Amino acid sequence: MNRMERKNILLTGASGTVGFEVLKQLVEKDRYNITVFDQKTKNSVEKFLPFKNDVRLIYGDITNPEDLKAIEHIDVAIHLAAIIPPLADEAPELAHKVNVEGTLNLIQQLENQSPKVFFMYSSSISVYGDRIDNPYIEVGDPLIPSEGDAYAVTKIESERNVQKSALDWTIFRLAAIMGNHKMSKLMFHQPLDTALEIATPRDTARAFVNGIEKQDQLSKHIFNLGGGESCRMTYDQFLERSFEIFGLGELDFPEKAFADKNFHCGYYKDGMDLEKIVNFRQDTIEDYFEMEASKVSTLKKTAASIFQKPVKWYLLKQSEPYQAYKEKDQKAMKHYFN
């Protein structure tokens, strides 16, 4: 395929976990002209250095329409850039500015300069809200974000803007994407009996990359993206395995450390709809645990094992449900507990 026949691909959010996997897979294909639009940070500059001869790099701020003017003649746009939790919940105005206004800015630039573009948008399982009592999820289900979930609200608004645009589009609602996760206060927001379906970053990336050549089948449709039955377990089982891998022993936090409600996740009942078209699933949840285990050296695991009590104490200090319970904060307790 000569260079004139190559599709021009735009990728936003390439410095993120999924975005970086998309970038690597696009470069490996060696059949696309790739434009990366990202913020200029120490992290992004270092990450993109090995690809400087393979892609066109545009550094800018998606909330500034002027920065987007260098984007033109695009055939397919994979839009992954977003403010995600916990920052999205801590700074909802920033999340709205980037996730909603930034997406609208990008849509308008593409409508003006690349009106025939195929716009692939990354949404989230969070749009369905709390599904503890009804964990099997389908695309047509109502979008009811959990109380206080600013991220989900931005994704719902952006989905609507994508659908109202003059562009051809598809939307993938991503399940829990597990890879490069750090333990944070968010781990306590999720009820232990949550039905959890994950997907690995590389499988998720494969769905977007394979989707480039499946525009006809994806066009104007929304899909649930998850790893399928081999990527499912309950959240407490997931944490138990994770703690074992990191050398942290048993999951023995006190009562009320974890919330009972107002999170998200579940099992995608219609997840095969996307798999049949783009054939992206290669990893199982066991593959995920193997990947995580390979990152933990014997030294790190031994150290964690020795210091597991102070580590767990430190983690528990970050549990907002537990703090609400201890302080008898009635409003917060009502949010976190049944």
Automatic annotation (TrEMBL):
- What GO MF terms are annotated? oxidoreductase activity
- Source organism superkingdom: Bacteria
UniProt entry keywords in alphabetical sequence = NAD, Oxidoreductase
* Transmembrane regions: none
InterPro entries per the record? Epimerase_deHydtase, NAD(P)-bd_dom_sf
Query: What residues does the NAD-dependent epimerase/dehydratase domain cover?
Result: 9-185
* PANTHER family xrefs: 4-EPIMERASE, PUTATIVE (AFU_ORTHOLOGUE AFUA_7G00360)-RELATED, NUCLEOSIDE-DIPHOSPHATE-SUGAR EPIMERASE
**Which family is this sequence assigned to?**
Belongs to the NAD(P)-dependent epimerase/dehydratase family.
What's the protein here called? Nucleoside-diphosphate-sugar epimerase
